[in-house]
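call fold(seq) -> tokens
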Amino acid sequence: MIKILSTGLYTSIQDAGRFGYRHLGVPVSGCMDLYSYNLANALLNNSPSCSVVESTIIGPRIEFLDSTYIAITGAKCLLLHNNHAAPINTVLKVNKGDVIDMGKTTIGCRNYLAVANGFATESILNSQSQYHGITTLPTLQKNQIIASYPSTRIIKNRTSIQFLSSHFNTSHLTVTKGPEFNLLTNHHVKKLFSMTFRLSSQSNRMASLFTNELDFGIQEIITSSVQPGTVQLTPSGQLIVLMRDAQTTGGYSRILQLTDKAISQLAQLSYNSKIKFHLIEH
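ret:
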């Protein structure tokens, strides 16, 4: 079990996502950066579906009420174990009473804390991912006690993974054509892929926004299905990239679709980061 001593900026329990309920209007949710999520569970030899603690920019301070093994992946941050610097991307042994402090990120913006065998939180619609209106709480709260599944495994292989900097500071996001891509003229296409976009501080788990807009737009469409990674273009020229907590339908033209890798990379970009879209064919 763990106790949340301080929550950080935005900290929640997430897993791979909530699938099979989009027809009911239920978002997929799940970890914003699936690469870092999968790495955390792999380091501990957990099931790929084990839930983790996801934090954003400023991580939580956590007390461990049982001895266990943990792995912290994702953004570079000042990680402290009992007030001593500790590494990310490796297995750490923590004892009862130990405190982990995940400070402000320096490269990237989201971290993932996994424990051996995963957390034992409520599962609703086959997922533990916290989301407002679905789970009891949308985020973790100060002084909250989080149960974890007991583990008697001794992890002797303390594998360390090199920090993949290209994942956290990419300037190009790979995309494929969206359903309404053909509504763009050749001039629009050229402008779209030559323009550099700057990530807005208004971005969140629902959508990533940009501070600059295109000088053209496309008319709205009949409300249609959207998914994480869908890039919408509004009539005013604003681009909206839907993320893990996004709605399941929308009325803006779907001009592009981010690859799974690009969704994870975008989730790690800090505000004001500059990106371009790179089109790949199916």
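The chain has a mean pLDDT of 95.
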